[in-house]
Specification:
- It is a single chain.
- By secondary structure, the chain is an alpha+beta fold.
- It is 34% helix and 26% strand.
- The strands form seven sheets. A six-stranded antiparallel sheet has the order 12-11-10-9-13-14.
- Strand 9 and strand 10 form a beta hairpin.
- The longest helix has 28 residues.
- It starts with a helix and ends with a strand.
Amino acid sequence: MDESLERCVKSLEENTEDVRDEARRALLNICQNVLRSPGNYRSRELRLDDEVVIEKLLPAVGAMECLFDVGYVEDGERIFLPRNTSLLKLQSLSRLLSTTIGNSPITDDINKSSTVQKAFFDRIVGHFRDVMYYENPNLQRKAKKVVPIVQLEIATMTKIRELQKSLKSSNAAEITSSQFEMELMAKDLFLVELLRWFKYEFFEWVNSPMCPTCTTECTYENVIRSTNPHCSRIEIHRCQKCNIVVEFPRYTHPEPLLTLRRGRCGEWANVFTLLCRSLGYDARFICDETDHIWTEIWSASSKRWVHVDPCENVIDKPLMYEKGWQKKLSYIIAYSKDEVQDVTWRYTRDQEAVMKRRKICTEQSLIHLLQSLTDQRQNSAGYSCARRKYVVKRKVLELADMLYVPNLRNKTADDEIYEGRTSGSLMWKLARGEITQANMGKSYIWDISKYGQAFELQYNIVKDLYHIVQNNDTVLEQKSGWLEGMNATEGGIFRKVENDWKMVYLARSPEAEYGRVKWTFEIADSKMCLETFTLTAKTEVFQGAKVSCEIEAVFDNKAIVIAVPNCDSFHTEEVRNAVRLNLIVTLCGGQGAEAWQHAQLFRQSLDNTEEPSMIINIQLKNHCV
């Protein structure tokens, strides 16, 4: 029996009884329909707006994973089982579901089987072996050459000068006497610039490769083994227009990826960890058994390991996966040149639930394996005694950092708002439970009164960053991710990147007749109110589509709606004395199957990294009359 399929079926137990049983019956019905009529294409297809998908499969942890594991693939508005896919795994899924439906759950704990434990332990050993690739001096030199070090150092020094300027008036003596701390801070700030460059300028996410003939995205068909020891497998994709087969090798060695510069989370973390090691950071490769990979960096300034996700351009948000992506975490293992460490507890605030899911092996056997591998590495030839003492001391600090005592620890991280995954296609994220419809919108309100009488908000869709700017160049505040600054969205709005045309923009879901976004600006200071509002935003329409804007101005005793005839350049004084503004942009119209793509908000070239896609200027005044 296939272990990955067994894990998918077993994960259905994470749901409440009614949700679990509904999902099991729906999955069994899908299996039986295909097996009864394997040549009937309709039996192999499920639309994403189908009642079965929305009401029975998506709400259940593990349900969509079962379908993807037996060979279903995503294609825009549907998932389907390709004709050339073997039905053996589908038959196995049918047998597993038939065993559980109408009876108590499977009595023998599948995840405790020796084969599953062996596969898990083999993965740990393999990853611990492979991280030594990063220590190859020749590979490090090659990796370092691809990094624009001077450019990133200039950006880092600019941030340091801005920080020094902001602190100078209040604490100049401390700044001049803490040169060592500034050097440590510079290394941390350089990491921020490295991460941004890697995400937006160097590496590319691939759901499915582009057809080399017509440059449209291909469709996944199946996977074949690779004879290359540096490549785990080769995915086979086919262009639906040209019928051309395109191979997508999944490399586990970082060297070819320095040239290819594309992949999914495994490739992203692999190359980013190598770059960090080549630049002198203590870095390690983090593997989550629920299917994600990222990096951790030892911060000398804060004396702790810092979570860094290159796919998401996120630093130091370890609870992001559990709270934002809704992941049901189990095992998260860290691999470095020094040690292999179970770091699950840094990434959860629900230890009790996590422990219930950790059934692959006993805790004692896992601890024994990790310690044995670490001892073997640290007792190998050339490993210094001084390094061993340093790593042991660092490990003690790490274990203390992962202790969580409810009601005693600083709750800032616990109370922070986390969003769902941004990399990967929507269905891919929904199927893994890494994003939900509930957290696809935000409720953020900009308090414009805390910045004085002039508020300027800039958004850059290429970098996906908001900046609050003062005097045209000083950045007062920054937010990463377009959803972070939103008050509400409708119509499945998403950020579309066209790698073939090298363009990026916001668009509505293919299933939606319209899409809508809303930004909200409020004055918390009762002594101030609005004077003027100015908007400049990039838009593009095709095939009769429309991008329309309006402003809702709320006063103490009334509210008015102000039409915005031109989003590209608009100024009004009708907002005078208002205490709250809503800027609403609606995308609609277009023709044919691609109508959703014909109304584009913030359309901008991927090469145009510095120009703002939207600028909002709001002037305020004191003592409203």
